[in-house]
Amino acid sequence: MRKGVIRPGHVEIRVLDIDEAVKHYVDLMGLIEMDRDDKGRVYLKAWTEVDKFSVVLREADEPGMDFMGFKCVSEEVVDQLRDQLLDFGLQVEDIPAGELKDCGRRVRFRAPTGHFFELFATKKQTGKWEIGNRNPEAWPRGLVGMAASRFDHCLLYGPNLSETLKLFREVLGFDLAEQVLAADGTRVAQFLTLSMKAHDVAFIHCDEPGKFHHASFFLETWHDVLKAADLLSMTDTSIDIGPTRHGLTHGQTIYFFDPSGNRNEVFAGGDYHYPDHPPVTWDAEELGKAIFYHDRVLNERFLTVLT
After folding, report:
1. Cα 301 to the chain's mean position, in Å?
2. In terms of DSSP bridges, do strands 92-95 and 106-110 run parallel, antiparallel, or are they unpaired?
3. What are the EC numbers (predicted)?
4. How far is the C-alpha of 280 from the C-alpha of 273, rounded, in Å?
5. Paired sense of beta strands 116-120 and 42-45, if any
6. Judging by DSSP bridges, how do beta strands 116-120 and 64-72 pair with one another?
7. Are 92 and 80 a contacting pair, CB within 8 Å?
8. 208-223 in b/e burial notation, b at 16+ Cβ within 10 A?
9. Angstrom distance (rounded) from CA 182 to CA 187
10. pLDDT at residue 1 above 50?
11. What is the predicted pLDDT for the residue at 167?
């Protein structure tokens, strides 16, 4: 049993219009609205998730990501990691239980890339949507849109990748599953995992700190990705790229934008990772094939449009 950080827990996304955002994430992507709070935030989950929520939407003047949270195995681990974060030289903020509805206390810190992350151990569990955990059916009836099955990862842009990798490996227990190296050996992208997944969080070098590239949600099959593409066209939703396959992680994917300009991904498949696996390495000159395996050509918008 993993003794520290176990998985992604949630992401809080800033949106310009909360009603438009809810329509996008619920009606189109198929997330389930679970609650709202007195700050106007909306709490969503995907149907396979056990915790009450994995996505929080907050209305703001500009889009982007407020923070990404990781769940720990116990409150004791949160305390241990808090001390280790301080020893690493980071400032921490203690956020009391209940600040996010039905979530326990959280320890927030800012990574060298400029992004805010937080650790927590306690959150109300509501079980898999409608089917529960005892004698469950294959899937719940009444799912809508893309029927995304879980919040999977975020891709973030910022500086100081080496220091961030050290933090996530040595303090938080992540493995480096995949990387992109420049000709001089500098790492310009890193894909980090806590499990057998291809990645739970990924970083690409950018001089400007704290930039949000996308939040990603898992679908079961390539056919589901194609259905997602159909739904995007049916709703005149802005598509960034796809459907296609990545070279990195080999996932089958499509990217698109929410009404506020935040990028979303839904994908299926992808590689697996064990702790004894060496990192998969891509050369930067092969980045076109690494990102868009079929076209092998970079989409400039994919690299430069950030929130």
Report:
1. 20
2. antiparallel
3. 1.13.11.2
4. 10
5. unpaired
6. parallel
7. no
8. ebbbbbbbbbbbeeee
9. 6
10. no
11. 97
The whole model's pTM is what? 0.95
Phi, psi of 126 (to 5 degrees): -110, -5
- Asked, as a colleague might, if the bond just before 209 is cis with ω within 30 of 0, I would say no
* 6, amino acid identity: I
H or E segment at 30?
Answer: none
CA-based angle 151:152:153, to the nearest 5? 115
Residue 241 corresponds to which tokens in the numbers above? 């790229």
CA pair distance 193, 173, nearest whole angstrom: 9
d(CA 119, CA 93): 11
Beta-strand relationship, 32-36 and 263-269: unpaired
Short-list 230, 264, 199, 209, CA closest to 31? 264
Residues with a catalytic annotation lie at 153, 199, 214, 246, 255, 265
Nearest to 281 by CA among 150, 172, 181, 142: 181
Q: At residue 273, what are phi and psi to the nearest 5 degrees?
A: -140, 135
Please state whether beta strands 55-59 and 5-15 pair in parallel, antiparallel, or not at all (unpaired): parallel
| Banded model confidence at residue 294, pLDDT cuts 50, 70, 90 | low
Pair 220, 268: CB distance under 8 Å: yes
Select, from the ranges 10-14, 180-184, 279-283, the one with the highest average predicted confidence (pLDDT): 10-14
**H or E stretch covering 88:** helix 75-88
- Cα-to-chain-centroid distance, residue 57: 14
pLDDT at residue 3, rounded to an integer = 65
β-partners of residue 216 are 153, 265
Other beta carbons within 10 Å of 91: 9
Task: Identify the residue whose tokens are 């079929």.
Answer: 294
**Which residues are 150's β-sheet partners?**
218
